Every structure is written in C-alpha cells, then in structure tokens.
C-alpha cells in the first residue's frame, strides 16, 4: 500500500514539475486550443467517438509509463554521452556562434535537429527497430496527443542520435531551448486531426497533411515523409510522398491499436518473433545445404557406378 502511495505521490510531483515549467504550459495551452478547435469543428459527440476516446486513453497511459521510465532512459543516455565524450570528437568552438542573433541560432538548432531526426526516423523504420517505432504508428486516430505516443526505447534512440549528431555543434543553450519548444509545438501541430496542406510552402514546413501521409496504413506510404519539420529533406533523400488530400486509414496493420500492455511489450514480443523466424530460416538453409551435399554425394557415387 505504501508503495502505491509513494508511486502516486511521485507521479503527482512529476506533474507539478511539468505544470510549473513555462515551456510545458505553452504546450498544454496549445493542446487545449487544438482540442477546442476540434470540438468546434466536429461537434462534441463526433469529436469524441469511442475510437478517439480509446486512442487518447491509450496515449495518455503510454505517456505516464514513460514518465516513470524517464529516469532510467535519462541514466542510460548519460552513459552514452559519457561514452561519446571518451571518443574526444572535437566540437565547434563557441566563439563561432558569438554575435549571431538568437533567432538565427535557434533556426540552425531546428535545422540540425531535423536533419538528425530524419536519419534517426529512417533507421527506426528498418526491420529490427520498427517494433519500437511501431508504437507511435499504432494510433488509429492520429491527433495532437499522438506526439506523446512513443515507446521509452525510442526516446533512448532519439537522445542517442542527438548526442552523436548534435553535440559537436556546441550551439548555445538558449538557442537549443527555443528550438526545442518550437519543435514540440510543431510536432503537436502536424499530428492534429486535420488534412491541411501548406500550398506553395509545402516543401518548406511540414503540414498535418504531410505527416498524416506518414501515418497512412498503406504500403505505398510506408517509410515516406520522415522529416519532422522540413519536407525538403525527404525530397533530397527520395522519401517525399504527398499524392493529394489524405483520406486514408491511419495506423499500423498487425500492431495492437490501443492495448497499452501489449504496446509496451511490443518490441520484446516482436524481437522474439523475428529471432525465431531468423533461426528457422537459418535451420532451413543449413538443412538445404546438407541435403545438397548428400545429393552431390549420391551423384558422385552414381557416376562412379557408371
Ligand atoms: Zn515513423
Ligand atoms: Zn507521427
């Protein structure tokens, strides 16, 4: 009982910390604004269909599981940073950035972050990391909160990739802070349940339509539109795809939609399945090789007999 009380008190403390953080207040206010627009647009009942309620409940549960796991993820990422430090990779001297306006440095921070994110995201769509990233794609009702439907292991991979790809830049902390806030707000925006495109600016700033096509559950859409902010990265690296208005099904076939326990365990379950599949394939090819060898032997005997 004491443990449960400690756990709830701990969660409450985390929440208090979140609520008193001005950056988080900004994100909450933005989420509330989006919610109000959504309700005004669709009406209360339509906005809160059973599917939407289940989706939001699952996302909030995953978010809270992550809140509990964040210290472990943070510790692991600190180890990774220490390892990175041991490599002694030179960083850009801070004097290079001196004198540049904060807005320019913040823009550079966002650009560098998005470049890192593009490759991080591309890797997450490969066979062995997909079970981790699939949690983000599992949402059948993509909405502002989907931003927070991320597996704890994905946070670790993301922090790791930013350490490797961004630390050497040594950008000032205030520029990184402003950049981080803009990134979160924009990330919430692209997940909003609307099919807005950005017309002539579509290659410059990612729109909800651009990101909805990334969440589309159809083979032609898989692994496309990987950039978070700048679609031109997708255009440059050949993964841009926005065929028009997005009115297709969202989600990921084969991945549980809102089963929080299975979603949390999903990477382990899938890695076990993939491992078994790999082993089966290996056994079949070894069996095939042995069969070929024995057939070859019979052939030789036959030849000798002739
Ligand atoms: Zn993705
Ligand atoms: Zn997304």
From TrEMBL:
Enzyme type, top EC level: oxidoreductase
Record InterPro entries: Fatty_acid_hydroxylase, Sterol_Desaturase_Related
Primary localisation category: membrane
UniProt keywords, alphabetically: Membrane, Oxidoreductase, Transmembrane, Transmembrane helix
Transmembrane annotation, as ranges: 56-76, 96-119
Gene Ontology molecular-function annotations: oxidoreductase activity
Subcellular localization, as worded in the UniProt entry: Membrane
Known EC number: 1.-.-.-
Residue ranges constituting the Fatty acid hydroxylase domain according to the UniProt record: 107-239
Protein name, UniProt field: Sterol desaturase family protein
Species the sequence originates in: Mesorhizobium dulcispinae
Lineage of origin: Bacteria, Pseudomonadati, Pseudomonadota, Alphaproteobacteria, Hyphomicrobiales
């Amino acid at each position: 009982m004491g443990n449960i009380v400690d756990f709830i008190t701990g969660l409450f403390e985390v929440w208090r910390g979140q609520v008193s953080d001005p950056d988080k207040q900004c994100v909450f206010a933005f989420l509330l604004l989006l919610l109000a627009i959504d309700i005004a647009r669709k009406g209360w009942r339509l906005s809160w269909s059973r599917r939407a309620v289940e989706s939001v409940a699952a996302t909030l549960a995953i978010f809270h599981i992550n809140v509990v796991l964040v210290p472990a993820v943070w510790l692991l990422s600190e180890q990774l940073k220490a390892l990175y430090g041991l490599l002694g990779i030179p960083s850009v001297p801070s004097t290079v950035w001196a004198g540049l306006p904060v807005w320019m440095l913040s823009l550079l921070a966002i650009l560098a972050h998005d470049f890192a994110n593009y490759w991080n995201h591309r890797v997450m769509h490969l066979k062995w990391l997909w079970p981790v990233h699939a949690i983000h794609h599992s949402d059948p009702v993509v909405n502002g909160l989907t931003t927070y439907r991320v597996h704890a292991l994905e946070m670790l991979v993301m922090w790791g990739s930013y350490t490797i790809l961004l630390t050497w830049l040594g950008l000032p902390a205030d520029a990184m802070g402003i950049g981080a806030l803009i990134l979160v707000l924009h990330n919430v925006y692209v997940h909003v349940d609307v099919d807005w495109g950005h017309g002539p600016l579509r290659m410059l700033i990612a729109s909800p339509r651009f990101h909805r096509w990334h969440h589309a559950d159809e083979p032609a859409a898989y692994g496309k539109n990987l950039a978070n902010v700048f679609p031109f990265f997708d255009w440059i690296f050949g993964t841009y795809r926005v065929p028009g208005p997005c009115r297709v099904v969202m989600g990921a076939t084969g991945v549980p939609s809102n089963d929080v326990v299975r979603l949390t365990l999903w990477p382990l379950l899938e890695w076990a399945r993939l491992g078994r599949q790999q082993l089966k394939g290996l056994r079949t090819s070894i069996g095939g090789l042995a069969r070929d060898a024995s057939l070859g032997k019979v052939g030789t005997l036959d030849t000798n007999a002739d």
